Automatic annotation (TrEMBL):
Gene3D superfamilies: Galactose-binding domain-like
Keyword terms: Heme, Iron, Metal-binding, Signal
SUPFAM superfamilies linked: Cytochrome c (SSF46626), Galactose-binding domain-like (SSF49785)
Name of the protein described by the UniProt record: Cytochrome c domain-containing protein
Pfam annotation, one family: F5_F8_type_C
Length: 958
């Protein structure tokens, strides 16, 4: 049917209706909370909040709007806010800066609100809208989940609750699981998963041959009881908590006493310590059990991350560095234990999750007293025993020191009473760092030596004095500096050693004719040898020439010296010294007075006291020292604490106190401490709140981590982020059930391992099925067991074990696969050769930040500057090149060849058979045997071993 044209009266009626509606709308009261607040939240508060306050304006509350004339209640024309949100043309003041301009109905709404008095309910605060709110799945209480009924599933898939959850999901996608893996594959998979090492050939044969229904459960129990279990799963946790044994940042100095924390992690996991207790010890072990080293060391977690120790004299920069340090602790804690990116709320409310900036600074207040560093960690008994042993010795030391110093003080006092005498004796100007000159009678010299007898100590400098240029001048009107290397002269002197940096401190710098770069000495002499003997009468040397920028910062300088000359290098004549120069400082003056005024009787008494004091000091040194570990120090940090606008410590805003997150569901626990709460109480309260049974986050996060390391991917594939930007659970009901099981088992991990590994889901084969992969390419629904490559540590450990060289010694300081060089900054040079001291499990490697360690770095061992909740798995040419050519694998190939000859004799067929057992846990096929015998016959048994160590089957797990 054709439409009829509207008549004029119809159009007029419609226009009249719209006019009446608009008039009614203008008169309708504005609901601030339902209309205005959401508009301001979505369009304005991202820039104009107490956290950011661009233009010094916050729209979270009415104060700034009213104080600055942005809003004049009842007067839209006088309200500047309406001008900036509805500008004419290209007004640079137009708002909002981000996104589209406000639509006319939105501007009209603000105008009506102002006309009606700009009412803002008391206490109402507007926050920027986040993508997730308090209804977000991970913030809700754990649900009471029961495994689904799966009547259609085979009997084996109806026994374990895990299998029922997985089967139900597979059924929804019309998928079926794979058949079980063969027993040889299964023991290899389980042994690697729980210990990070392969089963021996004998263990495989015993398991495969067993027809006992309990063989597999007994295998799991045996592996969980192995000390290797803690080493394997301890490494997973150390990845999460960014454990590293160097300080990071540009200086990156090594930390040599953090290894007790690594051992604590491994020991705790082997003991199956309840994980809620483990978390509490990480955050407050020193509070829970002071003077109990095996618990107190847990709080080293707080300082196990990188921190900037360069220091800065600018107070603003120092405050910013301190804020960055606490931020690192906040991020590590929130991501490891809560699976939340709380660090994103440092400068503003979280853009995606219901985490406010106030939440961030509540945690900032909690950690404000944590300081990086080392301290003694000991039991009360150890401290008391040491105090008892030192008590009398310290008293003797103090008394002998007092008597010795009294002798010196009296001598110095005698000298001070003869000021005029010493003023005449020390008549020349003091030595100058900028330029020190000595003139003497003309003398023929081939060699000139500076003999340093004292240094002017600078508190910012290391030991060793510095000289940037040493000049030797000839006599006569046309005097020349003949010390220059360009004139054929050479300079010899011991230099401060710093490995690859040695050249930067060479004595040659003193005669290069350039100022700035210094020779940094480690000995008392600098000797200049001229090209030929010449008559000289003047020398000049310096450390800091005017207008020169020293390349090595502050250095000590000479305070006492002698100048000697020689023609033949054997007979030396002193031509000048500093003895009649004025002292460079008070310490130098006292030293001179002491040397001049001590009588023979004084010296005899001093020597007697020094001998007695040396004996006492020796006895003190023999008293065992208390262990000193890198566990951090604590300051009171009493506050008050503030929210920082834009994250800047220079812009403090509202006061905050330590407290819990505000965004969890109402049933979650909550706390807020008073401003004067003790530092220890702040951390203990946070620890207790995190592991409170009503806090659902840690249980979910931990259960997910366990699942991830058994299946390669977690039920949530972003293990550190359970927020809006993280992944969604592939099996949400299963995750809830696993988290509840964890709590039911008192937070112990081993029962959960056992439950998972006894499931049919875990025992599936890894067979690839094209039809299934087209539905679920990543096998997130678990229709098969996804193969994985061994981790970097596993690759190295496996090679060592196969070669018969793996040292299973546990604990203690780590070994190093690099040479450590340190000057102002640290350098880690990878070792080309690895000796037997490095043949321990890789978890005991001294894990420094930004240190390349060849094989493990190539196989994606992460840099511990950040949390690594999951490992990358790359395939690169460098992996093959390293495995083929590094001295480590070449050595291991040789050792494996020697092992084969010992265990299999000279029979090539037996050697190949044994090699396959060791490398792959199976026998070779007839074709493989033939090919290997041929290769070994042509190139030698080590060459065959080298090939076997470079095969994919060795490093992939199915």
């Amino acid at each position: 049917m054709k439409s009829r044209p509207l008549c004029f009266t119809t159009l007029a009626a419609i226009a009249l209706s719209f006019s009446l509606l608009n008039a009614a709308e203008k008169k309708a009261p504005v609901d601030f909370e339902q209309e205005v607040a959401p508009l301001l939240s979505q369009r304005c508060v991202s820039c104009h909040s107490p956290n950011i306050k661009k233009g010094e304006l916050s729209l979270a509350g009415p104060e700034d709007l009213l104080a600055n004339g942005y809003v004049v209640p009842g007067d839209p024309a006088g309200s500047y806010l309406l001008e900036v949100v509805s500008p004419a043309g290209d007004d640079p003041a137009a708002m909002p800066k981000l996104g589209d301009a406000l639509a006319e109905p939105e501007v009209a709404l603000l105008r009506r609100w102002i006309e009606q008095g700009a009412v803002w309910p008391d206490g109402f605060v507007i926050r920027e809208a986040s993508k997730a709110d308090r209804s977000w799945w991970s913030l809700q209480p754990l649900a009471d989940i029961h495994p689904p009924e799966v009547a259609a599933a085979p009997a084996a898939w109806r026994q374990n609750p895990i299998d029922r959850f997985v089967w139900a999901k597979l059924s929804e996608a019309n998928l079926k699981p794979n058949s079980p893996a063969d027993r040889r594959t299964l023991i290899r998979r389980a042994t690697f998963d729980l210990t990070g090492l392969p089963p021996t050939a004998e263990e495989i044969d015993t398991f495969v041959a067993s027809d006992s229904p309990d063989a597999y459960p007994q295998l799991i129990d045996r592996l969980l009881a192995s000390p290797r279990y803690g080493e394997r799963w301890g490494r997973h946790w150390l990845d999460v908590i960014r454990f590293g044994e160097s300080r990071g940042f540009e200086r990156n100095q090594i930390i040599t006493n953090l290894w007790p924390f690594r051992d604590y992690v491994i020991r705790s996991i082997n003991e199956d310590k309840p994980f809620d207790q483990f978390i509490r010890e990480h955050l407050a072990g020193d509070v829970i059990a002071p003077n109990t080293p095996q618990v107190e060391v847990g709080s080293a977690f707080l300082v196990a991350g990188p921190y900037d120790d360069v220091g800065n004299q600018d107070p603003a920069q120092a405050a910013q560095i301190r804020a960055n340090t606490i931020d690192e602790i906040i991020r590590a804690s929130s991501e490891a234990f809560l699976g939340l990116t709380i660090g994103c709320a440092r400068c503003h409310d979280h853009k995606f999750d219901v985490i406010s900036q106030r939440d961030y600074y509540a945690m900032y207040a909690t950690f404000a007293g944590v300081k990086h560093g080392e301290r003694a960690v000991a039991t009360s008994e150890q401290r008391q025993e040491r105090d008892r042993q030192l008590g009398d010795l310290k008293k003797q030391q103090a008394e002998l020191t007092r008597q010795r110093d009294d002798v010196k003080k009296l001598a110095i006092a005698r000298g001070e009473s003869q000021k005029e005498h010493y003023a005449q004796l020390w008549s020349r100007p003091a030595i100058s760092r900028q330029s020190t000159e000595e003139k003497f009678a003309p003398v023929l010299a081939k060699m000139i030596r500076l003999e340093v007898e004292g240094q002017e100590r600078d508190p910012n400098s290391k030991s060793g004095y510095g000289i940037d240029e040493f000049e030797i001048w000839t006599t006569g009107e046309n005097s020349q500096n003949i010390a220059l290397s360009s004139a054929g002269s050479t300079a010899v002197g011991s230099s401060r050693s710093a490995g690859d940096f040695d050249g930067a401190y060479s004595a040659a710098l003193t005669i290069d004719g350039k100022f700035g770069a210094r020779w940094l000495a480690s000995g008392p002499q600098l000797t200049i040898t001229l090209a030929e003997p010449q008559t000289v009468d003047r020398i000049l040397f310096s450390s800091d020439r005017p207008d020169a920028a020293p390349s090595h910062g502050v250095a000590n300088f000479v305070s006492e010296y002698r100048i000697l000359v020689s023609v033949d290098g054997e007979n030396w004549t002193e031509v000048a010294n500093s003895y009649n120069r004025q002292p460079v400082n008070d310490a130098h003056r006292r030293k001179r007075l002491l040397a001049a005024e001590l009588t023979d009787e004084d010296r005899a008494r001093s020597q007697e006291l020094e001998t007695e004091l040396a004996a006492v000091n020796k006895a003190i040194n023999q008293v065992p020292a208390l262990p000193v570990w890198w566990v951090g120090n604590r300051s009171a940090a009493p506050g008050p604490f503030h929210l920082f606008i834009g994250g800047s410590p220079q812009r403090p805003a509202d006061e905050v106190t330590a407290g819990s997150l505000s965004g969890l569901a109402d049933s979650a626990p909550k706390y807020e401490l008073p401003q004067d709460a003790a530092e220890s109480e702040r951390r203990l309260q946070l620890a207790n709140w995190i592991v409170d049974p009503q806090n659902p986050l840690p249980q979910r996060v931990l259960a997910n981590r366990i699942w991830q390391h058994h299946f390669g991917t977690g039920i949530v594939n972003t293990p550190n982020d359970f927020g809006y930007m993280g992944g969604r659970p592939s099996h949400p009901e299963l995750l809830e059930w696993l988290a509840a099981e964890l709590v039911k088992n008192d937070w112990r991990l081993k029962p959960l391992h056992r439950q998972i590994m006894l499931s049919q889901t875990y025992q599936q084969s890894s067979e690839h099925r094209t039809a299934a992969s087209q539905v679920d390419g990543d096998a997130r629904l678990l229709w098969r067991f996804s193969p994985r490559r061994l981790s970097a540590e596993e690759v190295r450990d496996v090679i060592l074990q196969i070669a018969g060289k793996l040292n299973l010694e546990m604990g203690g300081p780590g070994f190093r696969l690099y040479q450590y060089l340190q000057d102002n900054v640290a350098t880690y040079v990878p070792l080309d050769e690895h000796d037997a001291s490095t043949y321990r499990r890789a978890v005991y490697h001294h894990n420094a930040r930004a240190a390349r360690i060849d094989l493990m770095t190539e196989f994606d061992s992460p840099d511990c500057a950040f949390s690594a909740p999951r490992r990358d798995e790359t395939t690169t040419p460098l992996q093959a090149l390293t495995m083929l050519n590094h001295d480590f694998t070449l050595d291991m190939a040789q050792f494996l060849a020697e092992r084969l000859q010992t265990e299999a004799g000279d029979d090539p067929q037996q050697q190949v058979h044994r090699a396959y057992e060791l490398c792959y846990g199976r026998s070779p096929t007839e074709a493989e045997t033939k090919a290997c015998i041929s290769l070994a016959g042509e190139h030698g048994l080590p060459a065959l071993c080298r090939v076997l160590l470079n095969t994919s089957e060795l490093i992939y797990l199915h």
